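User: Can you recover a sequence for this backbone? Please restate the input before giving your answer.

Assistant: Of course. Working from this structure:
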């Protein structure tokens, strides 16, 4: 058994030792501007309401959009995978915590042996006055082992496991944000495609009416065959654009169904009725580039992985130093009968102070430390790059939102003017003032402008979704992560 003084000293060292080797972790300092470049333009946008970042999709004022995002957050299979990854990280943290505590085990056995007199050992034993070829043995022990974390290697392991667990927590939030944004983006694309199909179908009707009028004039000898063929060709060209748009709409609806964790076609009936393209609400411009470090879960993931890599340096450095362990055993053993197993005459006990020191292995330890430092440098560069790309996402989304809204407003005026121009050209054609070519050109210009307007409206709404995602909208940051 260990002397009591030695035992007390070792336990005291393990409990109060503060000499955790390795570098102390400090979150990196990132220099960012106080405002986004496009923030002034965003603040000048008009709108009746300002979106709440936590559930920004509800501020679009589209009940179906809100419903589909809610369903996606409940049913999406990517989220199910992310939740499973959190369980794995939690298990790793539990294992690291358990390594700091003593481990114990109970084992016992009962054995019966037979020794033949034909064997060399049996022949020797057979010469004894009393030789029993059958033997019984019984043993029961309670053992415990505790590695004394004097130099903090196990604590560094725990810090790394905790950082990885926090990264997995932020990771599932990043997945939730991505799923919500992707759902809204696909929904808006569906409404945009439906609007474009409506424009094309209206143009088909217009061209069909024009062809009917020309065929009537031809029957009266007032229009040439060339004009009839020209009108038919223009009608066929417009009709040909509809299947392409419908194919894109089918693909978008299928993608939305899969995003909702359902078989393609599940929600198509609900989307069959055409609705207006949602309009992006006002965006809360109180979020600064510095706030992204606390709001964007992907940046929290990168920072926590950096913290984990820093802790692993401490784990590697701790291999320079000796490792101490305490182990003990209390039990009983007898080879007479099981009835004597727990008697004082059959008792056994032991205490062991263990030492392990890699004295002649410093070359490998140096390599492990260099590897850990290299991984930390990689994670630091990844974190800095993630911050830059996050601000790039915001700036790009702000720019796209503003420019697309300007484009949509200009095209709105253009469609109105082109509609009047088309009507005027048709009346002039009926009066013989202009040729049919001018009418067909007016139709083509109107179709292109109306289609471009629908695309601009859809793209501006999608840019709004991208802006909310880039700002880290879609979740309430927990204090355990926001403090890092």
């Amino acid at each position: 058994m260990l002397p009591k003084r030695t035992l007390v000293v070792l336990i005291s060292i393990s409990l109060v030792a503060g000499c955790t080797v390795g570098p102390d972790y400090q979150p990196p300092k990132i220099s960012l501007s106080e405002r986004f470049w496009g923030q002034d333009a965003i603040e000048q946008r008009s709108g009746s309401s300002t979106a709440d970042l936590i559930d920004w999709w509800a501020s679009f004022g589209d009940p179906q959009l809100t419903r589909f995002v809610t369903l996606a957050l409940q049913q999406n299979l990517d989220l199910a995978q992310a939740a499973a990854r959190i369980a794995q990280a939690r298990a790793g943290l539990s294992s690291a915590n358990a390594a700091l505590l003593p481990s114990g085990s109970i084992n016992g056995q009962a054995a019966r042996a037979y020794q033949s007199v034909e064997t060399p050992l049996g022949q020797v034993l057979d010469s004894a006055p009393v030789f029993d070829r059958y033997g019984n043995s019984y043993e029961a022990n309670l053992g415990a082992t505790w590695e004394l974390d004097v130099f903090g290697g196990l604590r560094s392991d725990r810090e790394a496991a905790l950082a990885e667990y926090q990264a997995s927590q932020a990771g599932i939030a990043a997945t939730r944000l991505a799923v919500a944004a992707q759902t809204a983006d696909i929904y808006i694309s569906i409404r945009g495609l439906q609007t474009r199909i409506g424009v094309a179908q209206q143009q088909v009707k217009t061209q069909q009416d024009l062809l009917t009028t020309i065929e009537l004039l031809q029957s009266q000898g007032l229009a040439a065959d060339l004009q009839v063929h020209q009108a038919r060709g223009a009608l066929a060209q417009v009709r040909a654009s509809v299947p392409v748009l419908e194919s894109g709409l089918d693909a978008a609806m299928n993608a939305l169904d899969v995003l909702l964790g359902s078989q393609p076609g599940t929600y198509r009936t609900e989307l069959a009725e055409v609705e207006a393209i949602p309009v992006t609400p006002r965006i809360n411009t109180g979020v600064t580039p510095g706030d992204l470090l606390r709001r964007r879960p992907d940046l929290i993931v990168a920072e926590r992985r950096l913290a984990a890599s820093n802790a692993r340096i401490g784990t590697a450095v701790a291999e320079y130093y000796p490792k101490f362990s305490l182990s003990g055993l209390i039990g009983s053993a007898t080879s007479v009968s099981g009835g004597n197993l727990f008697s004082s005459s059959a008792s056994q006990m032991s205490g062991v102070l263990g030492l392990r020191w890699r004295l002649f292995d410093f070359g490998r330890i140096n390599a492990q430390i260099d590897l850990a430092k290299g991984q930390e440098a990689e994670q630091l560069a990844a974190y800095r790059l993630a911050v830059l790309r996050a601000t790039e996402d915001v700036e790009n989304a702000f720019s796209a939102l503003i420019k697309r809204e300007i484009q949509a407003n200009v095209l709105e005026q253009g469609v109105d003017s082109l509609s009047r121009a088309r009507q005027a050209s048709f009346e002039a054609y009926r009066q013989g003032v202009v040729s049919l070519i001018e009418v067909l050109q007016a139709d083509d210009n109107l179709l292109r402008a109306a289609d471009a307007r629908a695309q601009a409206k859809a793209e501006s709404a999608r840019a709004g979704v991208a802006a909310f995602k880039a700002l880290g909208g879609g979740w309430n940051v927990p204090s355990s992560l926001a403090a890092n």
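That completes the design. Residues 109-148+328-356 form one domain.
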